[in-house]
Amino acid sequence: MSATTSDLRPTAARKRPAVSERRAVTRMTGGLGGTLLSALAWLMALVFFFPILWMLLLSFRSESDAASPRLLAAFTGVNYHGLFSGDVKIALLNSLNAAVTSTVLVILLAVPAAYALSIRPVKKWTDVLFFFLSTKMMPAVAALLPVYLITNNLGFNDNIWALIVMYMAANLPIAIWMLRSFLLEVPREIIEAAQVDGAGLLTILRKVIMPVIAPGLAATALICFIFSWNEFLFALRLTGQNAKTAPVFLAGSIAPEGLFLAHLCAVAFVVCLPVLIAGWVAQDKLVRGLSLGAVK
Hints:
Layout: H1 3-8, H2 10-29, H3 31-59, H4 63-67, H5 86-118, H6 125-134, H7 144-154, H8 160-183, H9 188-196, H10 201-212, H11 214-230, H12 233-238, H13 246-252, H14 261-281, H15 283-290
Helix pairs in contact: 3-14, 5-8, 5-11, 5-13, 8-11, 11-15
């Protein structure tokens, strides 16, 4: 591609939404109304974050202090001793493997599918989109028995690849819908300019489209990762001791009598930690990705 096309592609497309977003935020946060909205937003954020903070505080308390929670009590790290070894370590690695592998496969399949439904729509593309959406209308529990019988007959029960395939199939429709909305925002002029310069489909996808939809791509990948990491129903029924994931291990740590609350909070915080870190690291791309197209 020529220098003219390279200059045209991501720079202008990236600067326009950034400037528009800053102006929209400035308009919304100005004046008394903006101050009240900001205070309400912070209040709501604290309300949603408080359970995580309380769980973290209880995880550093002794079992006796956790049983009768007080704000001021001695801190201890005894609940985290040995937490990253044994069954917890295996469960975390299984969850990480299933979430990362399924997310990578979903993105690799969703990008060309979304391209075929947005940039160059195939025939009856609305029917195709409805087909993808209809797969999310069925309750997950309705598919549990057929999926269990299939994996059992194939000898894939208690195998992490059974979960990877399930998570890929479950998240693919959402990823295609999200990426299609992001691809619709790509200016056609930069694609046509690249085609005039002789760029092929793979070059256009890699060097023109990917930089423009990078925030949307990150948001889609993060959402797929979170959905896969948190999935519990299929993980409970399709896995045993070898492929047990972190949510299943966490559910197994709950005592019916409500005992060992501090230890349970420590396990729960460790299970939540990868998702919290991923969300914190990708927060700017996540916000930009989810708001892409909402602000003109």
